[in-house]
């Protein structure tokens, strides 16, 4: 039996062939990204690019579903974990492992041939860069986020934002904090100056807040179902899906994007004229 038989029973041979011909780029090979990578391999994407510049750490092990117990720490690159998992599932998939920052020429070049970009990022600076890139070069973009917060009572869940042919992007849907993005994108020298005046150095902080494998898995699975819907044409993907775990709810936002959005009206389709390459850091 064809290993894709059960897929084909859902979205047909034509749908499966469309997936096989698709090139998916996953930016961020962490807790969210590893679920996307695993599911993309099971679905049979013909080509998968993974971009991440980090190595596995001990605190990652509670949620990195593709990591093995014997993977050495330090010394195991996240992109290598992803490539190993993809090859264990399907040797015919073409894999591009890009061990580099999103803000590198290597990453920018790697994204050019992908038709669909999935952002599995944890800061608004990188999210803004990827939003601009995807709009400028007309990439189908799915922006993912998961979150656990104890403010105003325990809240946990995440969201998926689809940016495609129609207006609507993470900026005009209010999902990017520009002040935080500015801090994320500032130079090392500027960051040191700001921290000396106003805050605690990043080096004195831990690796982040709470993060749990099941919440990441829920958000990633919702996103992958939207990606399947887009590629196979079984329906149009939702623009904005919100998962509120504390309420056991998945809702679709009815909010309309800002029709005056600079990014959707000016950056979109501008290609090199958008000068997204200004974000590339010196090698």
Explain briefly what this protein structure is:
The protein has 283 residues and is α/β, with parallel strands linked by helices. Helices cover 37% and strands 17% of the residues.
List keywords for this structure.
283 residues; alpha/beta; Rossmann fold; eight-stranded mixed β-sheet; 8 strands
What do you see in this structure?
- With 283 residues, this protein is of the alpha/beta class.
- The chain has a single domain, classed as NAD(P)-binding Rossmann-like Domain (Rossmann fold), CATH 3.40.50.
- 37% of the residues lie in helices and 17% in strands.
- It has an eight-stranded mixed beta sheet, sandwiched between helices.
- Helix 3 links the parallel strand 2 and strand 3.
- The longest helix is centred in the last third of the chain and has 20 residues.
- It is globular.
Q: Layout of SSEs?
A:
Blueprint lengths: L4 H16 L2 E5 L3 H13 L3 E5 L26 H12 L4 E5 L6 H7 L4 E5 L3 H13 L3 E10 L5 E9 L14 H8 L2 H11 L14 H20 L7 E5 L4 E4 L9 H6 L16
Parallel strand pairs: 1-2, 1-4, 2-3, 4-5
Antiparallel strand pairs: 5-6, 6-7, 7-8
The CATH class designation is: Alpha Beta
CATH-derived architecture: 3-Layer(aba) Sandwich
Distance between the termini: 49 Å
Gross morphology is globular
Listing every helix as H and every strand as E from the N terminus to the C terminus, the arrangement reads HEHEHEHEHEEHHHEEH
